[in-house]
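Curious: explain these tokens?
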Amino acid sequence: MRRTTATLATGALVAALAWASGPATPANALDPSPGVADLAADLDRILSDSRLTIAQAGVQVRNAESGEELYATSPGKLMLPASNTKLFTGAAAAETLGLDYRFTTSVLGAGRKTGHVLGGDLVLRGTGDPTMLAEDYDRLAADVAAQGVKVVTGRLVADDTWFDDVRLGLDWAWDDESAYYAAPISALTASPDRDYDAGSVIVSAAVAGSEVKVTTKPETDYLTIVNKATVGAKTDVLIERQHGTRTVVVTGTVATPYQEWVSVDDPTAYSASLFRKSLAKHGVRVVGRTTTGAAPEGASRLAERQSMPLKELLVPFMKLSNNIHAEILTKAMGRKVAGQGTWAAGLKVSTDFARANGVQVLNMRDGSGLSRRDGFTAASIAQLLVAVRDKPWFPAWYDSLPVAGDPDRLVGGTLRSRMRGTPAAGNVRAKTGSLTGVTALSGYVTSADGEPLVFSIMLNQYLSGSPKDLEDKIAVRLAQFSRTNPVSAALRAEAPAIEGSDLECSWLKPATC
């Protein structure tokens, strides 16, 4: 989630302090068989890594069908889940909204049409669709023109009232404001790509002769670009939107092309600007200014666009760990259940869903896990993973989870570079999570005997580089687990090292990990 690299702890500090919670022992396993005892001993060994000496670890492994606990260490401790929060948001959305749910963006005429003239306002109304691209707004504008409208005597009204006007999570850090993964949330928004990074623009810098040329995708005059970059021997450039403004400043040196995904300050105003530009392109002139407000009763529909169904949206949402999708779905659930497109209403839906499925301990402050006040236990996550297996929407939700070692971005997702060449590759389906000093991995794996397992691993408050490799070692060991044929030490695979492991793969735009 937060794109910040943890500082390194000194070796002396790590060696001096004891791990307060203490690792699990083989006695944690309810099944006394040698295979389970060996599993517990191996997981203890993995979690005895010196990077966790001063950290906290919460882990639970259960049989997915019976719920039997096979291993646990501090499973009841409240910990930061990071993007593991999306497991709850995605499941609650599938349950509450349904897999066929679609977002609708419509254009309404608030006045009488006489010939080619609409005598009144033109209204652009959204319900939160994160998949709207500039070309979709252009298509809506073309549809308006096809209705014969050439002049709108009134205003262009952007109706984003489906959600409230609280744009940012109350616990989100200010230094994330320019980042696309912390973009403002609105019922009217636009994405620059088919990862559907709603509320952001791609800003690119490249050498053009003796100068640096800066461009945006989509092309827009909504942002003010201040280009201070120069041509240099290497690319060392910073592209950042200034706090609370529409101004993007580009500094540093450029040798090879570079691009950054930058959030906009106001997705509603940005979307309206894209739409207004497209209207002009298609010969529709709006006389009045652009404003915001609710569409009046009786306004007639001129054009409409529906998003892909939730069943399809779950894929980029979960595979690529898209924060904005999580928050939009949260507010959409609040709107459906309570008639309020707010975080408070939506989070209550997610929390009620979790508790109805046996989850007792959780604290949800947002839908994505970007908040550092979110709190879950390993036991809570494992309980959710067991409980949802009987849901009619489970196959689609399960398929949306990243698959270990699969190089396809929309299959492997944030696990595509992990656990390759191990028994976990193509086997483990799990949700990743990262914040500064936080990593998590929770999901499903099939053992060597064909036994379905669920697991939740949360590692918090480490000062070293990210210990994601420990998560992978646990997942690989679970894929090797056998109750009847204990794994010999010679066959216990070690997970390969993870490059760039401090960041979620989805943060590396364009993602290459």
Observations:
- Residues 1-29 have pLDDT under 50 and may be disordered.
- The CA atoms of residues 109 and 300 lie 5 Å apart.
- The longest strand covers residues 104-114.
- The chain has eleven helices and 21 strands.
